[in-house]
Design brief:
Layout: E1 5-6, H1 12-21, H2 28-38, H3 53-62, E2 69-70, E3 75-81, E4 87-93, E5 99-105, E6 112-114, E7 118-120, H4 129-133, E8 135-138, H5 141-159, E9 165-168, H6 178-189, E10 201-205, H7 209-218, E11 223-227, H8 233-239, H9 248-262, E12 266-272, H10 280-289, E13 295-301, H11 315-327, E14 332-334, H12 348-364
Parallel strand pairs: 1-2, 6-9, 9-10, 10-11, 11-12, 12-13, 13-14
Antiparallel strand pairs: 3-4, 4-5, 5-6, 7-8
Helix pairs in contact: 1-2, 5-6, 7-9, 10-11
The structure holds S-adenosyl-L-homocysteine and iron/sulfur cluster.
Iron/sulfur cluster binds next to helix 4.
């Protein structure tokens, strides 16, 4: 038998092909697709009884652990709420035991899911807890979709609300896992399923130039956010090692191409780090650098992480930075760091949990041999 496959990895057309090949009418693909992307746990339970006979029998025969298809339905191993009640961070365990972070943010009644695209990250940004972990593996489309389904389920159950926005700002670099991310996003936007507006989906990248150009070429309908963090080549690559590979001029050219081909602006993400990229001179240099590019700038105070000695910019300096950019004609917003007490920085919950598990394991199992 072939390796089992996730039903959540499939496109609508693939799902339809699989069931029709087994003699089920194509129209049944619609009911199955809706259930899969509404609440996959329902397929594991009695409510499956509501489905018409042939489809129900197909599910019973082929869907489940050790069968031809499985469902992506990760186990929640932590659910941590911020003290202001506006942010919940989940640690989800995948089938191979790896864990990823997914966040639900509820500011201003606009509920947003922040999802991961990889286990760890290969880009190594010095200030980022995920970057400090290194890369383990890409997520499959179904594993990305399952995080959104998890947040949707919590929103429905605990708040009676629907998900409005989706941001790919969790662990990992989305454009390093391009095909899986684009497959997952097209499922999220599918009107036969979750039907999230493409205008409310934002893909955040560290600046993978070939992939930005590919998005431009394909006229990908999602919002694009670029983590810039430096106003010149040296400043940027000191924080973002891959800035040496995809250099500033190339990156800005790719932004212009994107503006032109897609006809949309780009969100510039700027993590403010005291003394590194937050002075009035840097703000002026940034204003010059971005001249002629259609952007909206988001300023984000640094979340301190253990592997990085930098600290967040003081409020006054941050406001001054914003004022200079505004005076130069840019739309600039300040992103609040309200979730800080739930370890809101990407990757921070996982690294804290890993440390906790390691330290309890150390207590339980004293070292067998002396370290060399
Ligand atoms: N890999 C993508 C998306 C995930 S990171 C990217 O880098 O854009 C999402 C955002 O969080 C990025 O803008 C990143 O620079 C920022 N970020 C990471 N660690 C942070 C920290 N400790 N404090 C503040 N922002 C951080
Ligand atoms: Fe990866 Fe983004 Fe973290 Fe950089 S900031 S290490 S690209 S997740």
């Amino acid at each position: 038998m072939n390796d089992p496959q996730s039903l959540h990895d499939l496109s609508y057309e693939e799902l339809e092909q699989f069931i029709t090949a087994d003699g089920i009418k194509a129209v049944h693909a619609h009911s199955l697709w809706r259930l899969l992307h509404w609440d996959a746990s329902l397929l594991e339970m009695e409510s499956c009884q509501n489905l018409l006979g042939p489809l129900r029998r197909w599910i019973e025969e082929y869907v489940g652990e050790d069968k031809r298809f499985f469902l992506d339905h990760p186990e929640q191993v932590a659910d941590i709420r911020s003290s202001d009640g506006m942010t919940r961070k989940f640690l989800l365990k995948l089938r191979d035991g790896q864990t990823i972070e997914t966040v639900l943010m509820g500011y201003d009644g606009r509920h947003t899911a922040c999802v991961s695209t990889q286990v760890g990250c290969a880009m190594g940004c010095v200030f980022c807890a995920t970057g400090q972990m290194g890369f383990t593996r890409h997520l499959r489309p179904g594993e990305i979709i399952a995080q959104v389904l998890h947040v949707q389920r919590v929103l429905r159950r605990d708040y009676g609300k629907r998900l409005r926005n989706l941001v790919l700002m969790g662990m990992g670099e989305p454009l390093h896992n391009y095909d899986a991310v684009m497959r997952a996003m097209s499922v999220m936007a599918d009107v036969r399923g979750p039907s999230l507006s493409t205008q409310r989906i934002t893909i955040s990248t560290v600046g993978v130039v070939p992939a930005i150009l590919r998005m431009a070429e394909e006229k990908a309908p999602y919002n694009l956010a670029l983590s810039l963090h430096g106003a010149n080549q040296a400043q940027r690559s000191a924080l973002i090692p891959v800035g040496k590979k995809w250099r500033m001029e190339e990156l800005l050219d790719a932004c212009r191409t994107y503006n032109q081909k897609v006809g949309k602006g780009i969100f510039i993400e700027w993590t403010l780090i005291a003394g590194a990229n937050d002075s009035p001179e840097v703000a002026r240099e940034l204003a010059e650098l971005l001249r002629g590019i259609d952007v909206h700038i988001n300023l984000i105070p640094l979340n301190p992480t253990e592997g990085f000695a930098g600290t967040a910019t003081a409020t006054q300096a941050g406001l001054q930075f914003q004022k200079i950019l505004r005076a130069a004609g840019y739309p600039v917003t300040f992103r609040q760091r309200r979730g800080i007490d739930v370890a809101a920085g990407c990757g921070q919950l996982k690294s804290e949990r890993t440390k906790l598990t390691q330290s309890s394991a150390e207590k339980l199992q004293p070292a067998q041999s002396a370290p060399n």
